[in-house]
Amino acid sequence: MPFTLLVNGTERKVEAAPEESLLYVLRDNLNLTGTKYGCGEGQCGACTVLLAGRPVRSCITPVSAAAGKPITTIEGLERDGSLHPVQEAFLKVEAFECAYCTSGMIMSAVGLLSRNPSPSDEQMHDFMNGNICRCCAYPRILEAVKQAANLARERAR
Amino acid sequence: MTPPTASLALNGAHDLALENAEQASIPKLGFHFELQRREFFKLMGGGLLVGMCVSSLAQESGGGKNRESEDDLPTALSAWLHVAEDGKVTVFTGKVEVGQNIRTSLSQQVAEELRAPMESIRLVMGDTALTPFDMGTFGSRTTPTMGPRLRNVAATAREALIGLAAERWHVSRNTLVAAEGRITDPLSRRSISYGELSRGQELVTLIPGDPALVPPKEWKIAGTAVPKVDGRAFVTGQHKYSPDMSRPGMLIGKIVRPAAFQATLVSVDSSEAAKMPGVTVVRDGNFVGVTAPDEATATRAAQAIRAEWKAPAQSSDATLFADLRKPSTDDGANYGGPPRHVVGSIEQGLASADKTLQQTYTIAYIAHAPLEPRAALAEWSDGKLTVWTGTQRPFAVRDDLAQMFRVPIANVRVIVPDTGAAYGGKHTGDAAPEAARLAKATGKPVRVVWTREEEFTWAYFRPAGVIDVKSGVRRDGTLVAWQFDNYNSGPSAIRTPYNVANQKIEFHDSDSPLRQGSYRGLAATANHFARETHMDELAHLLGMDPLEFRLKNLNDPRLTAVFHAAAEKFGWGREKSSATRGFGIAGGVEKGGYVATCAEVAIDAATRDVAVKRLVVAFDCGAVVNPDGLRNQVMGAAVQGLGGGLFEAIRFDNGKITNPHFAEYRVPRFKDTPQVEVVLLDRKDLPPAGAGETPIVGTAPAVGNAIFAATGIRLRSLPLVPDGLPKA
């Protein structure tokens, strides 16, 4: 059946079964392949997108539950060719090795910082624990989230 | 064709054998390099082309001379480099990028020798139609072998460009300077870019001999923290991994997996699936697969197929270690020779000891679980097959595909996009024949992406193992006897780096109940765990400090140096372990890398949870090519080692994996991550060694030794604490 999705600020009409996962609609119908399949079970976070500003696992989110609400994917973070502070920090710190988890990590971090602009280490651990990096670049990812928080605060000033 | 599921069991052992073959420097296999000179310049445009031969072919064919009169390129090239008329440099290598950052570190080395800016250099990697043959990306071989080759190629290109400028200006080449992509004549102040010099040329040069390489002490680009090439593509989601690839008209493929390992297909009822719109069912021997226009339909169709399988009764993890002690029934399955190592007399050594110790250590199967699962996109066109897939051995996958589909090797092209990790787990290209088979049946491009459950079940595992150690020491701390028997886990790093006058060290083949193969560091992790745990036990038996005991029995200056460096950074010996806080140390040598790891653990007395609070890793791999990339590798390996060290284990029963999901198979997450400090010993006087593997080996024994220091509980099985700390 037809759904209207609000993806990265644009209305997109898609045809899909209501129970179909948002992940495959994004990847295959809308060609937004920055959002990754990692487990299909909501266990690894590689498929994380923002739904109404909150990080969700798109692999276990039915497309029907996402219709009509703003969806942000990794492709929608840049503004006028400028990277989002979280993207910038990940790049600067080089908070990745194979980088397959990076989209999901960045989306979770964006979700965290929008709720809590100055998270403690423990709050970061708690919030990000659902995102797996198999290369285990965790120390650098935490460092990148901290730097992104600083960067965002500087820009807000 | 051979059904892929039936051929799986063979590949794992074959891979290990191959990897060991590489380590023993067995000559390379034959090449199939068919791109011709004319075709090459048609593809790349004119310019300067430098190729490197690995064999004596360079001399035989007049290497060093320009080959303008001959049309064929030599067939034994191992790397080549093209300088285009616009100054862009393209380097071709069969190595692949799987997160170890070689696209960047190899580019740096080319930039260094060519004296060209990093931005002008592009690497074409792992494309069997474009890059020279390469055996594969494993065994930490890229840095020690491909690095020097590319440096040679780049230095030769630089010298050729200097020659072209000298010819053009009628001056002696000795007065000219190459820097930043230009040749300059300081006397006449003339300057010309590499691109301009290459214009109108179709010049082929083979490596003439040994061009002078820039010594690491004088490196300006290599040796520095150059950021990851294409980094922006990864933080914006633009990089296309194999599962992100698509082709016009592409279908999605799913495989109907057997109910158990070694199962054969009895019957299939696919009538319901075949009725679904756009669905094609393919059966070939033991292989059953479906294609559909989209993921959801393909999944539904695969689930709708009623397949009946017959499987023999198989063992479970409950009897694993007893099973592994039984000798292998397959003479051909071993590593190509008995790797028994004997020094002195173990009997006399044990007899002369003041104290002896005998212990057994066990190691569970673990999964690589790369976040990018096995995936392939296959397309047939006019009898030619192109496959995009994440594999560490694109040429082997190409050869397998050619054999399976009975087409000439020249008709198969395998392309490896930069891949979402491998850790030794992608020596095979398991999804490639599956996608190719479905594409052949449907006449359309087909993409197969394994599910996480398939990944945890049908990929191969790091070998499980049993290790017996029997040792003898004198009261003064001198090791006098060392007997070490490894069953199944593998011979990598099986020998001891410590001085022992009497040694007997042996690897024993077993029949592995599960498909097994390479893993980051191979058996070095298991062998270091057993050895470094046993060394700790001996130190405690003697009442000596574990570091002091190791140093007393060591003369290797590089290993001694990393032990000192790690201990100093960690503050070893400054505080004593308590019931809730323990300190441990371990170290070793493998693949040219020297590592020492110190660990601090915290024990929760109430919950009996073990938390690793701090890891200090000192590492020496010769001259450092990229300190930032290297720190990332070392830190990642150390933390990844916590998974196999603390809680990762594949469970199985009667031909089935019983924990094939991240919910049941625990990998390190943020909350498991300690503070990690990396100390690099940059040895600019030594050639660089690989670094992707060895830093993992110290983690498990250092943590186990720290747990003992706090609790007095000696853990001799990996994983150490899958269910928290056991009772004393």
Q: Mind explaining what this structure looks like?
A:
The complex is a heterodimer of chains A (157) and B (728). By secondary structure, chain A is of the alpha+beta class. Chain A has two domains: 2-75, Beta-grasp domain (Ubiquitin-like (UB roll), Roll), CATH 3.10.20; 85-156, DNA polymerase, domain 1, CATH 1.10.150. Helices cover 39% and strands 15% of the residues of chain A. Chain A has six helices and five strands; from the N terminus they run ββαββαβαααα. Chain A has helices at 22-29, 63-66, 85-93, 102-115, 121-128, 138-156, and strands spanning 2-7, 10-15, 48-51, 54-57, 70-72. A five-stranded mixed beta sheet of chain A has the order 2-1-5-3-4, with helices on both faces. Chain A is globular. Chain B folds into three domains: 31-224, Aldehyde oxidase/xanthine dehydrogenase, molybdopterin binding domain (Aldehyde Oxidoreductase, domain 4), CATH 3.30.365.10; 244-311 and 374-449, Aldehyde oxidase/xanthine dehydrogenase, molybdopterin binding domain (Aldehyde Oxidoreductase, domain 4, 2-Layer Sandwich); 325-365 and 461-718, Aldehyde oxidase/xanthine dehydrogenase, molybdopterin binding domain (Aldehyde Oxidoreductase, domain 4, 2-Layer Sandwich). Mean pLDDT of chain B is 90; it is low at 1-34 and 55-75. In chain B, 29% of the residues lie in helices and 23% in strands. At the A-B interface, α1, α3, α4, α5 and α6 of A face α7 and α18 of B.
